[in-house]
Amino acid sequence: MQLNDLQLRNFRNYQDLSLTFDKNITIFLGENAQGKTNVLESIYVLAMTRSHRTNNEQELIAFDSDQAYLKGTLQKRNNQVPLEITLTKKGRKTKVNHIEQKKLSSYVGQMNVILFAPEDLSLVKGSPQVRRKFLDMEIGQIDPIYLYDLVQYQGVLKQRNQYLKQTAGEKKVDPVYLEILDEQLVSFGAKVLFARQRFVNRLEHWANALHQKISQNKETLTLHYVSSVPFEETAEVATIQAAFLEKLKQSRDKERFRMSTQVGPHRDDLSFAINGKEVQTYGSQGQQRTTALSVKLAEIDLMKAETGEYPILLLDDVMSELDDSRQLHLLETIEDKVQTFLTTTTLEHVKNKMTVEPAIYYVSQGRISKEPVTTNPDSKEPLQ
């Protein structure tokens, strides 16, 4: 798939921006805090309906504006698909082919994107919450049903936690009501666990192949889904449901004391091992970065296998964070097959390593041009 064009109105520091893309690799070049990342963020929002940088959608709307508007034309095989998002203080409105989409699962997955930013290098060393979010965002793009199950699970989880807090200190609780909540939690939660385990198994296949290439066949990378619910990697949904329900019963006293649900997908994690040793604990910084790079790049081939099309790759100032060897492996993976949008403050790390000629946009103070931007008022007016 390919994004043919992008239109922004009152998004971050862009009042009115219109760009077209005809190259496989597009570079946004400029100093820091000029608006490069805002462009990549807008593409991410157009795909996922939300930002990777903030949970407050109001921050995406330009100052002194009531709403922001994003539009792009997606090329999918032989079809062009217009995507539109309007952000207001009351919420968001999404459209596919000019038709409003009421459900998140009906919109997300139209345009698949993979974002790789410097903070993603901490995927290995970051908190379990970071890795759970990684799983949820990536699986949600290729499996709309997963998003539905996850949202339902989170809704029941909130109800259950509220009930545990309300009944704290009481000798008795309503067993029937709690059993109903348990059954609903297990029903949706088991499907989430099954999808996550399947995704991790598939991701490991692609990530290990890349990792071995980067390490010159010296290291083998394995991924393990660490669940608070005990189940085998090959377990079916029904088996996971039974194990989940049993674990809830065993944790009942502990949960009433802590006033929150102690087992389930919201408590799980993802671990990485190189040659059998856990990377989080025993890996060097270089191994941790290589692992993160292998996992992120593995998503490209995994999404192609799952959806039949390559995703769009967003590289936000990540090249300067990688050494020459990892830069080369990244570029070899994406060139000639993945549409890539890349931000950087210098071409030093990028252009001389590419075999294809990229399109370059120069960014300065929220203005974008195909020519270097200058401060001379008599210079050519930048493209808006």
UniProtKB/TrEMBL annotation:
Keyword terms, alphabetized: ATP-binding, Cytoplasm, DNA damage, DNA repair, DNA replication, DNA-binding, Nucleotide-binding, SOS response
Keyword Manganese among UniProt keywords: no
Signal peptide as annotated in the record: none
Subcellular localization, as worded in the UniProt entry: Cytoplasm
Residues engaged in binding ATP: G30, E31, N32, A33, Q34, G35, K36, T37
Domain RecF/RecN/SMC N-terminal: 3-363
Pfam family, one: SMC_N
InterPro entries: DNA-binding_RecF, DNA-binding_RecF_CS, P-loop_NTPase, RecF/RecN/SMC_N, RecF_2
NCBIfam families: recf
Free-text function comment from the UniProt entry: The RecF protein is involved in DNA metabolism; it is required for DNA replication and normal SOS inducibility. RecF binds preferentially to single-stranded, linear DNA. It also seems to bind ATP.
Family of this protein: Belongs to the RecF family.
Protein name: DNA replication and repair protein RecF
